[in-house]
Backbone:
């Protein structure tokens, strides 16, 4: 079965749901065999009821949030912030890009969440207390264990943490 956790809607009214497989896995098992996915629901006949379902992206660890921005779906799935594109418009992402890599995965979900689009055009994310070891596109190294609130441009540049260190999740 599938268990919806979080979702977002695109500019065409399609619903993207981050779904759990329902499997209870250890962090090591989840990393070795990621079985979560993102489902896309679409209303193809305009009656206000979703009538088409496709698996938009799969083989994800823990997709804990998504946002649609300029034709792409951005998803936090530790250790990565990912960007998905459906270039042939068949309801299945055919382009998957790692925007930022390096947050530690935790199967108990105290890990990376988001992203959310800020009014400044940056993507905002939060991470739990399981740490990170990230080298930004510009070569800046971020390493630590404390929870953080991050922001990054949609192209992956400018990564920085804007708050953190004194809280858990």
Residues:
């Amino acid at each position: 079965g599938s268990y919806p956790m979080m979702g977002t809607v695109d500019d065409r009214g399609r619903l993207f749901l981050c779904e759990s497989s329902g499997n209870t896995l250890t962090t090591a098992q989840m990393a070795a065999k990621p079985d979560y996915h993102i489902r896309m629901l679409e209303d193809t006949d305009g009656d206000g009821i979703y009538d088409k379902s496709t698996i938009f992206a799969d083989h994800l660890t823990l997709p804990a949030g998504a946002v649609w921005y300029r034709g792409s779906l951005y998803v936090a799935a530790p250790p990565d912030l990912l960007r998905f594109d459906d270039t042939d418009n068949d309801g299945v992402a055919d382009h998957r890009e790692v925007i930022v890599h390096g947050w530690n995965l935790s199967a108990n979900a105290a890990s990376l969440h988001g992203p959310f689009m800020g009014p400044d055009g940056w993507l905002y994310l939060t991470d739990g207390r399981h740490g990170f070891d990230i080298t930004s596109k510009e070569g800046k190294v971020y390493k630590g264990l404390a929870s953080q609130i991050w922001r990054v441009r949609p192209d992956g540049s400018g990564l920085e943490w804007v708050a953190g260190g004194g809280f858990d999740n």
Q: What stands out?
A: The longest strand covers residues 52-60. The longest helix spans residues 27-32. Residues 67 and 74 are 5 Å apart (CA to CA).
